[in-house]
Amino acid sequence: MYIIDRIEENYERAMINTPAERLSEYILMNLESVPEMTLTRLAYESDVSKGFVNKYISMLTGMGSYAAFQSTLREEINCSAADHDIIMREAGETAAKLTGTDPVSPQDIRMIAREIMRAERTWIVGRRAYEGGMTFLIRSLRTEGIYVKYLTGAYLSAFPSETDWIGRNDVVIILSPGTTVDEFQQKTTQTFDLLEALKNRKVIFVGKDEGSSGMMSVVKTECGKGPYEEHNTAEWLALRLMEEIHRMR
Known about the structure:
Layout: H1 3-13, H2 19-29, H3 39-45, H4 50-61, H5 66-79, H6 84-99, H7 106-118, E1 122-126, H8 131-143, E2 148-151, H9 153-158, E3 171-175, H10 181-186, H11 189-197, E4 202-207, E5 211-213, E6 216-220, H12 227-248
Parallel strand pairs: 1-2, 1-3, 3-4, 4-6
Antiparallel strand pairs: 5-6
Helix pairs in contact: 1-2, 3-4, 6-12, 7-12, 8-12
C-alpha cells in the first residue's frame, strides 16, 4: 500500500478532532508542501506534538526517519502526477455503456456540486467497494481547498456520537447507487440509526430513489445491478462532479 493510501486510511479511521485526524488531514490537504517542511513546522501547523509526528511517521513507514518519509512522499506525488482524468473518463464511459445513459442527470450533478461549494465541510459516506471513485473525488476536492472527509457507514454506526461534529452548514453525501432510501435504512439497525442521527443535517442520498425523503434530498441513479456496476457509477459521479465544480470556479 502506498503511503498516501495509508494516510487516507488513518484519516478515515481516526476519531474526529484527535491528533491522528488533525495530522492526517493536514498532510492530505498540503501534500505538495509537506515534503519541504521541517518536522517542527509540521507539528505546529497540525497542532500536534513533535513526539506524535515521529510516532505517526514510524507507524506509517516502519522507520523513524522523518527525512525518509518526506522522500517517499515526494516520490509518490511525482509518480501520481499521471492524468487521472483519462482513467476516470474510461470508467465513466463504461458506466454509461452499462446503463445506456448517464447514471445521474446533469441537473442533479449541478445540484450536488452547488451544495458542496456552499457547504463549510463535505462528508461522504459510502462503501469501501467505491473507494477508487471516492479516492479520486476526495483528492480532487482537496486540491480545490474543499474540506472533505470520507467515512464508511460502519464507522459512523460504531461511533454515532461522531455525527455531532457534522455542522448545520455542512453537507453529507450518502453514496448507495444500488439501493433505495428504504432499503438502505432497513439494511441493519446501524444504518437506521445513522439516518436518524443525521435527521437535522443536510443530506443528499444518491441511490435508486428520487425527490426527497423528509429533510433529505434524494438523487436517482440509473445503475445496473451488482457491485461492478455500482463501482463504475461511483467513479463516473466523481468525474462529473469535479467537471461541474471546475466550471463553477
